From TrEMBL:
Coiled-coil intervals, chain numbering: none
All residue ranges annotated as the VWFA domain in the record: 83-251
Upper lineage: Bacteria, Pseudomonadati, Gemmatimonadota, Gemmatimonadia, Gemmatimonadales
Pfam families registered for this protein in UniProt: DUF58
Protein name: DUF58 domain-containing protein
Lineage top rank: taxon: Bacteria
Gene source species: Gemmatimonas groenlandica
Length: 299
Protein backbone atom coordinates (compact mmCIF):
# COMPACT_ATOMS: atom_id res chain seq x y z
CA UNK A 1 0.00 0.00 0.00
CA UNK A 2 1.35 3.42 -0.90
CA UNK A 3 1.79 5.96 1.86
CA UNK A 4 1.84 9.73 1.92
CA UNK A 5 5.09 11.67 2.24
CA UNK A 6 5.95 11.86 5.93
CA UNK A 7 6.20 15.65 5.82
CA UNK A 8 2.45 15.90 5.21
CA UNK A 9 1.68 13.88 8.34
CA UNK A 10 4.40 14.71 10.88
CA UNK A 11 2.97 16.31 14.06
CA UNK A 12 6.02 18.56 14.53
CA UNK A 13 5.53 20.02 11.05
CA UNK A 14 1.77 20.34 11.50
CA UNK A 15 2.26 22.28 14.74
CA UNK A 16 3.66 25.15 12.65
CA UNK A 17 0.40 25.51 10.71
CA UNK A 18 -1.96 27.77 12.68
CA UNK A 19 -4.94 27.50 10.29
CA UNK A 20 -6.79 24.23 10.95
CA UNK A 21 -8.50 24.32 7.55
CA UNK A 22 -5.13 24.54 5.81
CA UNK A 23 -3.75 21.84 8.10
CA UNK A 24 -6.62 19.45 7.41
CA UNK A 25 -6.42 19.99 3.66
CA UNK A 26 -2.63 19.49 3.75
CA UNK A 27 -2.93 16.23 5.64
CA UNK A 28 -5.77 14.78 3.59
CA UNK A 29 -4.37 15.84 0.21
CA UNK A 30 -0.96 14.45 1.12
CA UNK A 31 -2.44 11.23 2.44
CA UNK A 32 -4.79 10.65 -0.49
CA UNK A 33 -1.97 11.33 -2.93
CA UNK A 34 -0.39 8.08 -1.76
CA UNK A 35 -3.65 6.25 -1.19
CA UNK A 36 -4.95 3.81 -3.81
CA UNK A 37 -8.16 2.78 -2.05
CA UNK A 38 -11.40 4.72 -1.90
CA UNK A 39 -13.22 5.33 1.37
CA UNK A 40 -16.06 3.19 0.07
CA UNK A 41 -16.46 0.18 -2.18
CA UNK A 42 -16.01 2.29 -5.26
CA UNK A 43 -16.75 5.74 -6.57
CA UNK A 44 -20.00 7.45 -5.71
CA UNK A 45 -21.43 6.31 -9.03
CA UNK A 46 -20.96 2.60 -8.36
CA UNK A 47 -24.24 0.70 -8.25
CA UNK A 48 -24.92 -0.95 -4.88
CA UNK A 49 -28.43 -2.49 -4.86
CA UNK A 50 -32.12 -2.10 -5.65
CA UNK A 51 -34.87 -1.22 -3.21
CA UNK A 52 -38.62 -0.88 -3.57
CA UNK A 53 -39.96 2.49 -4.72
CA UNK A 54 -41.34 4.71 -1.95
CA UNK A 55 -43.58 7.77 -2.44
CA UNK A 56 -41.38 10.83 -2.82
CA UNK A 57 -38.47 9.01 -4.48
CA UNK A 58 -36.94 10.59 -7.56
CA UNK A 59 -38.65 9.00 -10.58
CA UNK A 60 -35.42 9.31 -12.52
CA UNK A 61 -33.93 6.66 -10.22
CA UNK A 62 -36.44 4.00 -11.23
CA UNK A 63 -34.88 1.04 -13.00
CA UNK A 64 -37.23 0.66 -15.99
CA UNK A 65 -35.57 -2.56 -17.15
CA UNK A 66 -36.44 -4.21 -13.86
CA UNK A 67 -39.97 -2.78 -14.14
CA UNK A 68 -40.30 -4.34 -17.58
CA UNK A 69 -39.41 -7.76 -16.15
CA UNK A 70 -41.31 -7.62 -12.86
CA UNK A 71 -44.03 -5.00 -13.32
CA UNK A 72 -42.77 -3.46 -10.06
CA UNK A 73 -41.01 -0.18 -9.39
CA UNK A 74 -37.49 -0.41 -7.97
CA UNK A 75 -35.00 2.37 -7.19
CA UNK A 76 -31.31 2.10 -7.97
CA UNK A 77 -29.15 2.83 -4.93
CA UNK A 78 -25.50 3.81 -5.18
CA UNK A 79 -22.67 3.78 -2.69
CA UNK A 80 -23.00 7.52 -2.15
CA UNK A 81 -26.49 6.89 -0.75
CA UNK A 82 -24.88 5.28 2.30
CA UNK A 83 -23.30 8.56 3.44
CA UNK A 84 -23.22 8.61 7.22
CA UNK A 85 -23.57 11.00 10.09
CA UNK A 86 -20.25 11.26 11.94
CA UNK A 87 -19.87 12.80 15.40
CA UNK A 88 -16.31 13.50 16.52
CA UNK A 89 -16.17 13.38 20.33
CA UNK A 90 -13.07 15.14 21.67
CA UNK A 91 -11.76 14.89 25.23
CA UNK A 92 -10.82 18.43 26.33
CA UNK A 93 -9.86 17.64 29.92
CA UNK A 94 -6.61 18.72 31.56
CA UNK A 95 -4.78 15.44 31.04
CA UNK A 96 -5.01 15.99 27.28
CA UNK A 97 -2.85 19.13 27.64
CA UNK A 98 0.25 17.06 28.37
CA UNK A 99 3.05 16.76 25.84
CA UNK A 100 6.68 15.71 26.17
CA UNK A 101 7.52 16.45 22.54
CA UNK A 102 6.54 18.83 19.76
CA UNK A 103 2.79 18.58 20.40
CA UNK A 104 0.46 17.88 23.29
CA UNK A 105 -2.11 15.13 23.16
CA UNK A 106 -4.74 17.82 22.61
CA UNK A 107 -2.83 19.34 19.70
CA UNK A 108 -2.56 15.91 18.11
CA UNK A 109 -6.25 15.26 18.77
CA UNK A 110 -7.25 18.49 17.05
CA UNK A 111 -5.04 17.69 14.05
CA UNK A 112 -6.65 14.25 13.88
CA UNK A 113 -10.25 15.42 14.19
CA UNK A 114 -9.78 18.24 11.68
CA UNK A 115 -8.25 15.83 9.14
CA UNK A 116 -10.90 13.14 9.60
CA UNK A 117 -13.67 15.73 9.39
CA UNK A 118 -12.22 17.08 6.14
CA UNK A 119 -11.98 13.53 4.79
CA UNK A 120 -15.56 12.72 5.83
CA UNK A 121 -16.92 15.95 4.37
CA UNK A 122 -15.22 15.15 1.05
CA UNK A 123 -17.30 11.95 0.99
CA UNK A 124 -20.54 13.84 1.58
CA UNK A 125 -21.00 12.77 5.20
CA UNK A 126 -22.84 14.82 7.79
CA UNK A 127 -20.18 15.82 10.33
CA UNK A 128 -20.54 17.10 13.88
CA UNK A 129 -18.39 17.71 16.94
CA UNK A 130 -18.75 17.41 20.70
CA UNK A 131 -16.00 18.52 23.07
CA UNK A 132 -16.30 17.44 26.68
CA UNK A 133 -14.78 17.69 30.14
CA UNK A 134 -17.02 17.03 33.13
CA UNK A 135 -19.93 17.83 30.82
CA UNK A 136 -20.31 18.52 27.12
CA UNK A 137 -18.69 21.88 26.34
CA UNK A 138 -19.26 22.68 22.65
CA UNK A 139 -21.62 20.83 20.35
CA UNK A 140 -21.77 21.19 16.56
CA UNK A 141 -24.73 19.14 15.27
CA UNK A 142 -24.02 16.79 12.33
CA UNK A 143 -24.57 18.49 8.97
CA UNK A 144 -23.05 18.50 5.51
CA UNK A 145 -22.60 22.27 5.95
CA UNK A 146 -20.79 22.36 9.28
CA UNK A 147 -17.14 21.79 8.33
CA UNK A 148 -16.07 25.41 8.82
CA UNK A 149 -18.03 25.70 12.07
CA UNK A 150 -16.43 22.47 13.28
CA UNK A 151 -12.93 23.72 12.45
CA UNK A 152 -13.59 27.08 14.11
CA UNK A 153 -14.82 25.31 17.26
CA UNK A 154 -11.73 23.10 17.28
CA UNK A 155 -9.43 26.09 16.86
CA UNK A 156 -10.73 27.85 19.97
CA UNK A 157 -11.05 24.74 22.16
CA UNK A 158 -8.76 24.49 25.19
CA UNK A 159 -7.84 21.46 27.29
CA UNK A 160 -8.19 22.09 31.03
CA UNK A 161 -9.92 20.84 34.14
CA UNK A 162 -11.28 17.49 35.33
CA UNK A 163 -13.24 15.05 33.21
CA UNK A 164 -16.12 12.61 33.52
CA UNK A 165 -15.37 10.51 30.48
CA UNK A 166 -17.99 7.80 30.99
CA UNK A 167 -20.72 10.36 31.72
CA UNK A 168 -19.82 12.38 28.62
CA UNK A 169 -19.88 9.32 26.37
CA UNK A 170 -23.42 8.57 27.53
CA UNK A 171 -24.46 12.14 26.70
CA UNK A 172 -22.93 11.94 23.22
CA UNK A 173 -25.23 9.08 22.33
CA UNK A 174 -28.22 11.40 22.71
CA UNK A 175 -26.96 14.19 20.44
CA UNK A 176 -28.75 12.81 17.40
CA UNK A 177 -31.80 10.67 16.82
CA UNK A 178 -30.16 9.15 13.75
CA UNK A 179 -27.66 6.35 14.10
CA UNK A 180 -24.22 6.93 12.65
CA UNK A 181 -20.55 6.84 13.56
CA UNK A 182 -19.07 8.16 16.80
CA UNK A 183 -15.33 8.84 16.65
CA UNK A 184 -14.06 9.14 20.22
CA UNK A 185 -10.65 10.82 20.68
CA UNK A 186 -9.32 10.61 24.25
CA UNK A 187 -6.43 9.51 26.44
CA UNK A 188 -8.70 6.94 28.13
CA UNK A 189 -7.89 7.81 31.75
CA UNK A 190 -10.83 5.93 33.17
CA UNK A 191 -11.49 2.38 34.34
CA UNK A 192 -11.60 0.07 31.27
CA UNK A 193 -14.70 -1.73 32.56
CA UNK A 194 -16.67 1.51 32.83
CA UNK A 195 -15.46 2.73 29.44
CA UNK A 196 -16.38 -0.59 27.87
CA UNK A 197 -19.93 -0.36 29.25
CA UNK A 198 -20.32 3.22 27.98
CA UNK A 199 -19.16 2.30 24.48
CA UNK A 200 -21.34 -0.83 24.51
CA UNK A 201 -24.33 1.43 25.22
CA UNK A 202 -23.49 3.49 22.13
CA UNK A 203 -23.32 0.29 20.11
CA UNK A 204 -26.68 -0.86 21.51
CA UNK A 205 -28.10 2.46 20.34
CA UNK A 206 -27.10 1.57 16.79
CA UNK A 207 -23.96 3.67 16.51
CA UNK A 208 -20.69 2.45 15.07
CA UNK A 209 -17.80 3.50 17.32
CA UNK A 210 -14.14 4.15 16.59
CA UNK A 211 -11.94 4.92 19.62
CA UNK A 212 -8.63 6.71 19.08
CA UNK A 213 -6.59 6.36 22.27
CA UNK A 214 -3.84 8.99 22.37
CA UNK A 215 -0.66 8.23 24.30
CA UNK A 216 2.32 10.57 24.74
CA UNK A 217 5.71 8.80 24.47
CA UNK A 218 6.53 9.73 28.10
CA UNK A 219 3.40 7.94 29.28
CA UNK A 220 4.64 4.64 27.94
CA UNK A 221 7.58 4.60 30.34
CA UNK A 222 7.89 6.71 33.46
CA UNK A 223 10.59 9.28 32.55
CA UNK A 224 13.60 10.29 34.65
CA UNK A 225 15.66 8.64 37.37
CA UNK A 226 15.96 11.33 40.02
CA UNK A 227 13.25 11.99 42.65
CA UNK A 228 10.62 14.37 41.29
CA UNK A 229 7.19 15.75 42.10
CA UNK A 230 4.47 14.92 39.61
CA UNK A 231 1.30 17.01 39.29
CA UNK A 232 -2.08 15.56 38.37
CA UNK A 233 -3.13 17.51 35.27
CA UNK A 234 -6.81 17.51 36.22
CA UNK A 235 -6.94 17.73 40.02
CA UNK A 236 -3.66 19.59 40.62
CA UNK A 237 -2.65 17.07 43.29
CA UNK A 238 1.11 16.76 43.84
CA UNK A 239 2.80 13.38 44.19
CA UNK A 240 6.51 12.94 45.06
CA UNK A 241 7.97 9.90 43.29
CA UNK A 242 11.24 8.11 42.59
CA UNK A 243 10.74 7.13 38.93
CA UNK A 244 13.72 4.78 38.80
CA UNK A 245 12.33 2.68 41.63
CA UNK A 246 8.77 2.59 40.28
CA UNK A 247 9.43 2.15 36.57
CA UNK A 248 8.97 -1.62 36.38
CA UNK A 249 5.72 -1.50 38.35
CA UNK A 250 4.52 1.45 36.26
CA UNK A 251 5.28 -0.38 33.01
CA UNK A 252 3.35 -3.42 34.22
CA UNK A 253 0.34 -1.31 35.20
CA UNK A 254 0.24 0.77 32.01
CA UNK A 255 0.60 -2.31 29.80
CA UNK A 256 -2.24 -4.01 31.67
CA UNK A 257 -4.40 -0.87 31.35
CA UNK A 258 -3.87 -0.72 27.59
CA UNK A 259 -4.60 -4.44 27.19
CA UNK A 260 -7.80 -4.11 29.23
CA UNK A 261 -8.96 -1.15 27.14
CA UNK A 262 -8.42 -3.10 23.93
CA UNK A 263 -10.28 -6.12 25.29
CA UNK A 264 -13.23 -4.07 26.57
CA UNK A 265 -13.63 -1.95 23.46
CA UNK A 266 -13.29 -4.90 21.12
CA UNK A 267 -15.82 -6.89 23.15
CA UNK A 268 -18.21 -3.95 22.88
CA UNK A 269 -17.93 -4.07 19.09
CA UNK A 270 -15.88 -0.88 18.69
CA UNK A 271 -12.74 -0.27 16.65
CA UNK A 272 -9.84 0.57 18.96
CA UNK A 273 -6.72 2.37 17.74
CA UNK A 274 -3.92 3.38 20.12
CA UNK A 275 -1.79 6.22 18.75
CA UNK A 276 1.60 7.55 19.82
CA UNK A 277 1.48 11.34 19.49
CA UNK A 278 5.02 11.46 18.11
CA UNK A 279 4.05 9.36 15.09
CA UNK A 280 2.70 10.63 11.75
CA UNK A 281 -1.05 10.64 11.25
CA UNK A 282 -1.10 8.02 8.50
CA UNK A 283 -1.86 5.13 10.87
CA UNK A 284 -4.92 6.95 12.18
CA UNK A 285 -6.15 7.77 8.69
CA UNK A 286 -5.65 4.21 7.47
CA UNK A 287 -7.48 2.86 10.53
CA UNK A 288 -10.39 5.19 9.85
CA UNK A 289 -10.53 4.20 6.19
CA UNK A 290 -10.40 0.50 7.04
CA UNK A 291 -13.27 0.85 9.52
CA UNK A 292 -15.37 2.77 7.00
CA UNK A 293 -14.67 0.25 4.25
CA UNK A 294 -15.71 -2.64 6.49
CA UNK A 295 -18.95 -0.90 7.39
CA UNK A 296 -19.79 0.02 3.79
CA UNK A 297 -19.46 -3.65 2.81
CA UNK A 298 -21.86 -4.68 5.56
CA UNK A 299 -24.39 -2.04 4.60
Amino acid sequence: MATAPASFLDPAMLARISDLALLARTVVDGFMHGQHRSLRKGSSLDFAEHRSYQPGDDLRRIDWRVYGRTDRFYIKEYDADTNAGVIFALDASGSMDFGSGAVTKFDYARFLVASLAWLSKSQGDRIGLATFKEELVDVVPPSVRHLQLLLHTLARAKAAGPSRLVHSISRIGHLTTRTGIVVLVTDCYEQPEALGRAVAALRMGGHDVIVFHLVDPAEKQLPGDMPATFEDAESGALLPLRPGELRDKYNTLITAHHAALQERFTSAGADYVRLDTSEPLDRALHAYLDARLARSRVR
